[in-house]
User: Which sequence fits this backbone?
């Protein structure tokens, strides 16, 4: 089956910093989504992005399907950005292990 | 607009007991899903329903059954709970399998 790897596993930043999270996948996919799981466990869909680039406020994402990776950019980080960011791919979603992001005030 | 509603939020079961987790969505989505999340890991698919009247196994279906009661509701049943089923369970829905997913707030289940 498809393997999904996310990096880095952990990231600690000061408020205001920028960050890039990476998602590599082992085969071509028809579906790629980024999620944020906040410290209370709630999962929020950030982007549905099987290819191309999308932006939503301080967050943007790029998927290069031919090279089998996706990047999530967070600019001007805020403490509320803390949590775990997951990449999930393909039908019914296969999930990576996530990147745990901690933003310090 | 409630989105995806799961009940209960917390549950403790004894080994061998049964229970049903309920999920309802009010977004007129066709597809619904049940996942489990173990500590420090991503989610794993238990069962899904691509459309009303259909259900299919996911990655980890053993020990579970599901019912797509109607377009809005998709329930997950544990017939004989085991400690290995201690986990957080999430229900999700989407217009179709290639559309953005909306998740419920989760059910934290402990089997002792």
Assistant:
């Amino acid at each position: 089956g498809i393997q999904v790897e996310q990096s880095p596993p952990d990231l600690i930043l000061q408020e205001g910093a920028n960050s890039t999270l990476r998602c590599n996948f082992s085969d071509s996919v028809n579906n790629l989504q980024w999620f944020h799981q906040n410290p209370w466990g709630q999962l929020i869909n950030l982007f549905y992005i099987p290819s191309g680039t999308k932006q939503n406020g301080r967050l943007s994402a790029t998927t290069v399907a031919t090279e089998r990776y996706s990047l999530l950019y967070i600019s001007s980080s805020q403490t509320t950005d803390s949590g775990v960011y997951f990449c999930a791919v393909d039908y019914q979603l296969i999930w990576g292990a996530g990147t745990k992001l901690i933003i310090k005030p | 607009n409630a989105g995806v509603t799961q009940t209960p939020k917390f549950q403790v079961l004894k080994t061998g007991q049964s229970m049903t987790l309920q999920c309802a969505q009010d977004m007129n989505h066709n597809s619904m899903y049940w996942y489990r999340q173990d500590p420090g890991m991503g989610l794993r698919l238990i069962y899904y329903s691509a459309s009303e009247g259909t259900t299919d196994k996911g990655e980890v279906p053993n020990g579970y059954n599901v019912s797509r009661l109607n377009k809005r509701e998709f329930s997950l049943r544990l017939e004989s709970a085991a400690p290995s089923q201690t986990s957080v369970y999430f229900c999700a829905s989407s217009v179709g399998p290639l559309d953005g997913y909306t998740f419920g707030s989760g059910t934290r289940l402990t089997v002792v």
DSSP finds no helices and eleven strands in chain A. The two ends of chain A are 40 Å apart (CA to CA). The mean pLDDT of chain A is 95. Chain A touches chain B through 22 residues (CB under 8 Å).
